[in-house]
Design brief:
Order of helices and strands: HHHH
Radius of gyration: 15 Å
Number of domains: 1
Structural class: mainly alpha
Helix content: over 70%
Keywords: Membrane, Transmembrane, Transmembrane helix
Length: 115
Amino acid sequence: MENQIHKSFKIASYLIFAAILIDLIVGVIHSRENANFDISIGIETSLMFMTLGYFAFIGKHWVKWVVLFVTVLSTIPLLVMPDQSMTVPFALQLFSGFLKITSILLLFLVPKQKP
């Protein structure tokens, strides 16, 4: 019989996919407001997170460490941004970070698989 994938993996992958959509929306908003903004970096990052979401969807246990590492790296720029007012793109980025952190918590709550 096939291994059953824990439902936390599925929920975490959906949260990651929702965060990707929010990140893409933020990228479009930034590209319209700032002519120097390069949206290709946002698309590449979204593709990377989509790949990680896929691995979470199929139940790979190692993905929680990679998602944790990448989320921490992608959240650092939010912390060092100079005096950001609560604009729509900034609020959306915070919500995207919240979704990613929630997905990490769900992935770490999954019990260890038995060999």
